[in-house]
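Morning F.,

Quick status update on the modeling queue. The single chain you submitted on Monday has been processed. Sequence for confirmation:
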Amino acid sequence: MVEQVLEITLKRSPIGRPERQRITLTTLGLTKLSKTVRHKDTPAVRGMVRQVAHLVEVRTRSREG
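Structure tokens below.
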């Protein structure tokens, strides 16, 4: 079975952003610029990424499971 994985990279600083956006980035595991994390492609993760889309870069990868 092929599983979709999102690679999310923090591209812009959260300094000066609303607290809710900073919390979302921390929840995703993005604590430093250029840090990349991988998460399963779920509606919850997609929703979090949508909230901070202007700060991150997202790539979709396939993973054999």
